[in-house]
Amino acid sequence: xxxxxxxxxxxxxxxxxxxxxxxxxxxxxxxxxxxxxxxxxxxxxxxxxxxxxxxxxxxxxxxxxxxxxxxxxxxxxxxxxxxxxxxxxxxxxxxxxxxxxxxxxxxxxxxxxxxxxxxxxxxxxxxxxxxxxxxxxxxxxxxxxxxxxxxxxxxxxxxxxxxxxxxxxxxxxxxxxxxxxxxxxxxxxxxxxxxxxxxxxxxxxxxxxxxxxxxxxxxxxxxxxxxxxxxxxxxxxxxxxxxxxxxxxxxxxxxxxxxxxxxxxxxxxxxxxxxxxxxxxxxxxxxxxxxxxxxxxxxxxxxxxxxxxxxxxxxxxxxxxxxxxxxxxxxxxxxxxxxxxxxxxxxxxxxxxxxxxxxxxxxxxxxxxxxxxxxxxxxxxxxxxxxxxxxxxxxxxxxxxxxxxxxxxxxxxxxxxxxxxxxxxxxxxxxxxxxxxxxxxxxxxxxxxxxxxxxxxxxxxxxxxxxxxxxxxxxxxxxxxxxxxxxxxxxxxxxxxxxxxxxxxxxxxxxxxxxxxxxxxxxxxxxxxxxxxxxxxxxxxxxxxxxxxxx
Amino acid sequence: xxxxxxxxxxxxxxxxxxxxxxxxxxxxxxxxxxxxxxxxxxxxxxxxxxxxxxxxxxxxxxxxxxxxxxxxxxxxxxxxxxxxxxxxxxxxxxxxxxxxxxxxxxxxxxxxxxxxxxxxxxxxxxxxxxxxxxxxxxxxxxxxxxxxxxxxxxxxxxxxxxxxxxxxxxxxxxxxxxxxxxxxxxxxxxxxxxxxxxxxxxxxxxxxxxxxxxxxxxxxxxxxxxxxxxxxxxxxxxxxxxxxxxxxxxxxxxxxxxxxxxxxxxxxxxxxxxxxxxxx
Lengths: 551, 280
Prior knowledge:
The complex is a heterodimer. Chain A is mostly helical. Chain A folds into two domains: 53-206 and 227-278, no CATH class; 310-549, no CATH class. Helices cover 74% and strands 0% of the residues of chain A. Chain A is globular, with a radius of gyration of 26 Å. Chain A starts with 9 loop residues before the first helix and ends with a helix. In chain A, 41% of the residues are buried. Residues 286-294 of chain A have low confidence and may be disordered. In chain B, 35% of the residues lie in helices and 21% in strands. Chain B starts with 18 loop residues before the first strand and ends in a 14-residue tail after the last helix. In chain B, helix 3 (108-118) packs across helix 4 and helix 5 runs parallel beside helix 6 (182-197). In chain B, strand 10 and strand 11 (226-232) form a beta hairpin. By secondary structure, chain B is of the alpha/beta class. The chains are: A mainly alpha, B alpha/beta. At the A-B interface, helix 11, helix 15 and helix 21 of A face helix 2, helix 3 and helix 4 of B.
């Protein structure tokens, strides 16, 4: 290849990647759907910016207060929530995660360094990173407002803190994806996870048991926890700023060094996973020669579900097989139970107790609402995991109505299992829910679920997005769907809250149940109205479906 | 083996073509991808649909199988109007589309079971045919392997197995031999020939002209969205020979190959020296 100036410079390649992404973005605007996506992105971006600015102001004022009143070490109280949000939000709201699967770039002569840079840059597009960065800027400005001389140092410390957060998020995603990517590691992960849950469960009873000595216990807990938090990134960052404020420059550098060390270690651990991906790792569940040595095919009779068409039964069977092989999705399903444990932590009712300890009656309805909310990741993009399989639905004689009924029943089956798990969790952690709470929860779901299913069936046809069940994160939801989701949840929660408030106003809780039943009639009417029109809509949307899902 | 897998139901009336289109047109904005195509495929034919890249082959097959709506024109399958009796038509056809339409996170057996049920087969028949097809396609040795982990050739074989599990009367295949090794191609060809022997109609697009020439009895050629030739291989050969009056294409006494007919019809030839000198 004479005369060719080959350049594998990372800068050139990064510029090429940025250019191609820009071109893809511009081309996407050619269709109405692309323009709608842009509009949705702008609206969501505005919401995130508002949240970021609001949080930045609040945190900035708090930082100013702490530093101006000589308590810079209390900055840890601000940095811990930022840290926890940064790490938890991407897990709790995967639809909003902006990270993009960069493994498809591996076919190009990309150096490992460039690949890592691409991954880190993509990671910086995550809303959690954007919000976290806003808030850290707010804290930096608050510190600078109180003591201008401290601002450059605070800027450097919080910049490293931001890098730690950004890389830690990616590290967690990359490793969790690895652990739940294959059956054996997934089982080990599940066992560890449940052991952790049981351990957490013990905290509440222990605090209650020693409740009469709660002050002493809390002081002891504080004394015990403080040194631990001080050696973790938020504590170290706060320590670095506090030491500099106290003119202990050497100590401040030690803290900063420790923070940098965290960044290096996290990058190193992340790098193990990235390197495996870079070398073309395949996390599929291929059974090795020994494991799958059966000579006869494993053919079982298909499921037979009385009362359902065989097409719907086949779709339900297929959905459950898909879900059972997706560690990431299974992990999403247990998140409501995790949240129950997290918000249920604490001692007796009172200021020191967890949110749900103070209002245990809310635990089941809140858990159920959260479970349904998480399920919308699937419900709102029914065909996303099917990808090219959508062509089969289009060429097969089965109606889209049957297909959707199958998918809807499968998803409601998941919700039912989650409800049972939540009920058990509530019983163990708090006390068995009252009959009223149970009825309100169930009737509320009878209203909320059909609305979400109907909306999801429409959105699945109008803004489909190919997703991969086997990967954790690195998926991008349709921004139109995300925006529509906000609107639908706003309406559903608004109506539900109004109904509950009215019942409370009249002092008759059964009124809420009756109200939800009445609303559920409307919701089911809406659901069947949409269901009836699905075949026609699917025929009209078949080009969009194949174009988006067969990419 | 595969005794069940043949055209179910009533035989096709001889007076209806298996596939018939009238003024089939598809526009994408300004671009006319398929323009006034009138196709006639008789029952029992092994029909090859050829054309250069971007000629409109895939667009046509997508319209014939319900993956794409025509802008105008009419499609009849076995005498049934596709637009009016969509489900009835779909029950009688099998399709291997360009993207194969597989569900990656199922095993091969689970996928075939799912497809069988979606086509209305009972549980026992589905299980029996699934086992037979996996065996025939040599996919039975790794029963726990997910479809996503199959090689390209294995995926093609599985897609073909899925397309025939309900015993379709017409089989549509979009580039079935692309990316398939000689062993897998042999398996596919054996199955297709058996189907033809049992009275099914096969409509395939392919760039591998040798295979089309060996398998197909009838051929149509589309170029820039317009149907430029249609008929049996002998008819096309005779047409080209009469145009060229036995001049340069083929020597005296030798039959024109399909490749020569194709190149003559679409006018494609490229000077090897004209471009890409840097390739060395």
